[in-house]
Protein: Phosphoribosyl 1,2-cyclic phosphodiesterase
Amino acid sequence: MTPPGASSAEGGVRLTIWGAGGSAPTGRADRARFGGDTVCFEIRREAPGAPPLIVDLGSAARDLGRRLKTEALDSGRPCEAEILLSHLHLDHIMGAPFFAPFYDPASRIRIRCGLSPDPEFARDTLMAFAGPPIFPIQPIHMSEPAWDVFRPAEPFEAAGFQVTPVRLNHPGGCCGFRIETGEGAICVIGDHEHGDAEIDAGVAEAVEGAAVMLYDAAYDDADYERHRGWGHSTWSVGGALAERCGVGLTLFHHHPPELDDATLDAREAAARAVHPLARLARQGMRLRLSGGRAEIL
Structure:
């Protein structure tokens, strides 16, 4: 077994953006290139049978779950996955009722959330959402996942990676993650509103020297002025943070559903003109990390 955070002899690490949207999914034709599903990220070593580390179960978790179910059937092994929930707002859990591994009693799944020291809090919330009267059956109950909690700044192991949670500024609470892969750190920062000096300092410390940072940039500067207190940040703040902290590649995510591809193209062009190492995350985007560097495939 590869120690947490150590490099795997099998190769690099893959990061897949299954969904990059925020607030609500959208299936409009003018959002086809950036994608309309809400946040769901998968991190996995390039090694046979390596389990995925999944961050959030937005609407894109449906497609990820179907892929994991197919892999399990093809390999003849039960589906194994570790899931980190940044928080329990609807756009980050709405894929849970449709996540195929939950329907298989043989699946081996652990779900972690840091909003309460009581693991029953996340369990009860998620199962109430993915069950009657909101949903006709209780798929999560079928797989009987393990439930666990985490605390900001206290590292733990998940799917063979060392994960350190970081407190974010969002209504109701939220956690980001620094994930040490042995091939470079991946930092997931969202949902987060800049402006709290103590929390911002913790975020800066967490992303220092990361190979990849996924940053909540729901707004540009003009949008932000109309949405102060809503719990989201801007690409200008995220880009400046990345440059101060030596981040290799920044991917902005949590695209609002009302924005179309043309608007997001313009936003990306504006961001890259100031921060050349930044991109907007796209649904289906895949990255490979190796030797501390990230490559978009």
The helical segments are 61-75, 90-93, 119-129, 139-143, 197-207, 221-226, 235-244, 261-274. Residues 61-75 form the longest helix (15 residues). The chain has one domain: 13-296. The mean pLDDT is 95.
